[in-house]
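Annex B, item 7. Sequence and structure tokens for protein A, then protein B.
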Amino acid sequence: MSNLRCIICDLYFKTRSGLWKHNNNKHNIKIEIENKNKCKYCNKKLADRFSKWKHETKTCKQNTDIIKKTSKNTITNNNNLTQNNIQNINISFNKIEFNDSHNINKKLDDIENKMNQNHPINEQLINMIVNKDKIIEELSSESNNKINTENNESISDVDSNQIKIQNDIIKKQEKQIKILKNLVVKKQKRNEYEDENVIYILTTPENKKNRIYIIGKAINLKNRLSTYNKTAEHEVIYYKACYNKDNMNIIEQMVLAKLKQYREIANRDRFILPIDKNISFFKEIIDNSINFINI
């Protein structure tokens, strides 16, 4: 029989919580029930034997064995961290070579030669300039890492003059890249389109090879083209003006409905020209829709 007994009404209970609730509710008294699951180091009361074992062996701050073990692990981890940091710093230094600067100068010269030959600005040239930015950013980041770790005892023998020279080279390359970007912007001509409220057909050299065309509407075609050209150079294949803005909105919906089966992807105004058709197929659909509405 359980030894959990109410001393007032002589009732027995299976659990300590049951006895406690009985005393609290029936007799309005709170009796401290002996808890065998106490920590032997700090006397903390735990819910069960497993919690007691876990507390005593893992987390109790009064257990000297845990304190010694924790201190030893902390020292070991700190030593390992220090060694890893030193290795990483050495690796970073090895990556910063003047050969990188030579490669940058060589590629920049290639870009300047292309600019001098008056080649049209295209996606490849823009990508080359973007790649230059990435290289400059990587070199800048590596140099900053060297400067930030200059006071570390493990790298006290680093030549500060070399860091200064490297930073000067990076600044020079950044200036050259800025000049090239300005040249690119100046060489991108924006054509004037007098007509307003137009239905247009656009594409890029790459999309043209894949027979993909963008069809849509624009109040101002020049401004719309500028938006597309932020990602890649687009060519105006065809455009035709509508009578007014309301007609333009209606005609666009007619054209998109007729070309629905040729969409490249749902909900995008990109269309694939059938293999047995030429671009006049799209043009005729636009012309017929405009003529129908303008009658």
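Protein B:
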Amino acid sequence: MNLIKITAVFFLLTTASFAEDWVKILGNPPAIGSVEEMMDLQYLLELQENRTEGECEEARAEESVTLKSLFGGKHGPLSDAEVIENTFMFYKYLVMAGLKTKQAKKFFKRQRPFARFPNQIVTCIKESSPNQSYPSGHTSIARVMAYALSKKYPERRFQFFQKADDSAKYRMIGGVHFPTDIAAGKKLADYLAKIYF
């Protein structure tokens, strides 16, 4: 059996009885034109005004979701050898958490900041699917992986969750997620962690 088949079988066995009520789990995103949506926008505009090219470079470096981009490299808590050692575990959780995140995104269909406010939000990273903002997939995947890595390396728990939070912030700096998308991504990860761990 190859890696994909093993992961798919594991996923089906662990989530077969797992029918989600996305509104109950995550709550609804802010309504269009609401005070909460305007607060989301204001926060992003402040980030946009103050972001540096270095922050945009960091955000671009994490566009592709890999164990090395999220937790390895020069700023990550994992060594190159640990990245290699934990790659299978990463892809297992990437598939599991990624699928659940995709289902929630398709349910809510929230526009991304650059699509909702095209005359105000300027991205500094690649613009992805314009109607899949809520919840943030990078956030949920990074946080689920922080749980998995913390189980294996408990002495670095703080570092893993700090790096997951940094990854989430880069999605806002890049202009592709609202703060409430990030909060929902964390909430989804916490929900999944109770099932997976």
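Comment on protein B: The chain has eleven helices and no strands.
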